## 1
Amino acid sequence: MSLKILVTGTAGFIGFHMAETLAKRGDQILGIDNISEYYDTELKYGRLAASGIRKTAVRHRTIVQSGIYPGYRFICMDLLDREELFSVFKRERFDVVCHLAAQAGVRYSLQNPYAYIDSNITGFINILEACRHHPVRHLVYASSSSVYGLNEKMPFCTSDNVDHPVSLYGATKKCNELMAHTYSYLFGIPATGLRFFTVYGPWGRPDMAPFLFTRAILEGRPIDVFNNGNMKRDFTYIDDIVRGVVKVIDRPPRENPAWSAADPDPGSSRAPYKIYNIGNSVPVKLPDFIESLELALGMKAVKNFLPMQPGDLTDTRADVDDLMREIGYAPSTPVDEGIRKFIDWYRDYYKQ
């Protein structure tokens, strides 16, 4: 049975892929994005165009029908526009909300903290209030591996303490999890938070390493390698992420009858609430990742080694055992293959 799904952030990287995948399987999708200028808006319009939404048709608060997918519509609006958001919820009566819109980026949070409060806190409370007054079967929302902060135990597990974030971005994502639990407990909203681990692939974000490194190498510029390359990342290919999120959408959480206040599980609750890691669970050393890029490009990188940046994590690795066991999540894309696919897209899109 097809679902009526709101997907926020559909001009963004993950949101674009989610909207397409859900539309292809026959769901009725309304995508929302404010097309912010955090990075190149032409890339965002390019994603929309690839899913049948023409740039010339996009107008503020106006619903645009995809020319490719009959079940996909898009509206350009800001989640801070509470009145319009509530009007959309009242009119559309969604079955599911897949909330992926956010102000992303660890480093940018050092420069413009208010953007994170506006988008990630105020925008999220507007989503929660809309779900409260116009009930949905399931709210799925994006959290982040950044919530683990000072935690050094590997792999990162949802049972770990996440009370010591090292970036405002991570702090806002931790706050989202707390807010979602409160609304789940008080108003019975089934809510699942997904802690994404370094997602990459075609149509990716230009502020992330695969994009930054590829562009610099092709232009003959040095790449900035932080912490002198002594870092590991749980790089997760976009197709694996999307398949996992779709499986989660179809499995709203239930109350955990074994949950105990004496020994509380942070990843579940007496409320219909769940937290999952969603990653590849195979961390890659940064020098090895760069070497894979070099092989795919057929070019060597000039490396500019730098100290650790404030807010970054040295290592990440996701414990995804519960997601595999409960949802059937099974990441299958090795990093070499994922990088080749990204490079193929990049060369085609930018004609390089």
## 2
Amino acid sequence: MNNLKTAVHIAMIMDGNGRWAKERGLKRTAGHEEGAKTVRAITEYCASIDIKYLTLYAFSTENWERPKLEVEFLMKLLEKYLKNELEVYLKNNIRFKAIGDLTRFSKTLQARIKKTEDETSKCTGLTQVLALNYGSKNEIIRAIKKLNEQNLEVTEENLESCLDTAGIPAVDILIRTSGEVRLSNYLLWQNAYAEMFFTQTFWPDFTPAELDDIISDFSKRERRFGGI
């Protein structure tokens, strides 16, 4: 359990790209492109203020239900993002990690993800975690299967060791943008005692200044973890 006033792990549900674009008379894809720029800005900022883990909900297990052309665009955008960001990761001492069931992605994209993980593996600053084809229920089911395969007793410690986030501390701050107030099957186990913040700001408009305000609010909250 970390210092109650210090955030080690921030998780974000990056919502509102499509609505941001619609308000401006643009295609949804333009919102996703602008959202990718915000990912870079927030990631670099978190690295600069010594946040240790930043987990971003990039593509859920349910997102496959979106229009085919939008899904194809998101896959291309993700591959382009990882290729372009490698230099940014290394410059800022950022380690990259992906969580989720990656087997559904193309071999090319899987290779790009692994290459980015491998080439940033020695970075010791912020770890940026992208949740890709991720759903918490799916993650927990896969973890239970691992427990069974390894013939391990079902305990909190053993289950956590089989989650995609094994070795990563629990979430301290959960932020969702765009005014929606729900978890959407995101890090249900890891968010057990997270402090939650919901902002009306669409993801492409989310700034380091707004994140600063949230972190300041977090530092004033009393976290009892079920105690008194």
## 3
Amino acid sequence: MNEGEQEYQQGLVSIITPVYKSERYIEQTIRSVQAQTYREWELLLVDDCSPDHSRELIERLAAKDSRIRYRRLEKNSGAAVARNTAIAMARGQYLAFLDSDDLWEPEKLSRQLQFMAEKGCAFSYSRIRMTDSEGNTIKDNISVPQSISYHGLLRRTVIATSTVMLDREQTGDFRMPLRRGGQDYATWLQLLRRTGRAYGINESLTAYRNSGGSLSSNKLDSIRQVYQIQTHDEHISRPRAVLNTLCFCMYAFKKHYL
């Protein structure tokens, strides 16, 4: 089937969650989805050959809730492959992303769907409440802009993965670039070239766990990934990419530490 020909289930939110070494937090994450006031969702958990007890925890919860769908990859392939596998499984008009150690507020889906309907937009995000590994709030005043363009995202880190919601009837089908790190940032740039702008809700709808096991915990690697994505994926000149990355770093420092 060609891009744009897919038929999606109207109003259904397909939630994309890669799983790897997630046993400590995965049940809390799933429970935060089950607590949503908006009930039309499916949770797609793709296990990247996690060596812990994530599988047993997920299968126990899935046995009691048919909206939870679980698949295990045949070999460890990285978060991009896990997310793309979940996207291919997804039946919903909407895609939402939720990392396996983050949590959603109960009104997250209903509030974001309402916002997107009011804006008529294809791509939305929200602010986060940053917590430590135990769930204690570290910071809850990280504002997000009302909207951001492709060129704006080249210089600013404003879109947290677990806050993103997309309307596939407007974005069309897509897959994340097959890179081990930074595939979410590369995807948002790819989608902004299609949609023009993403729109932000300045409300904390997601608790982002700033723990050592997070996919984005290594800040130096994140900076390197931003530069590589801009030069290799987006074909931006090296001098311009250096300037963009410096601006990106300054904003990241302000967001996390000021």
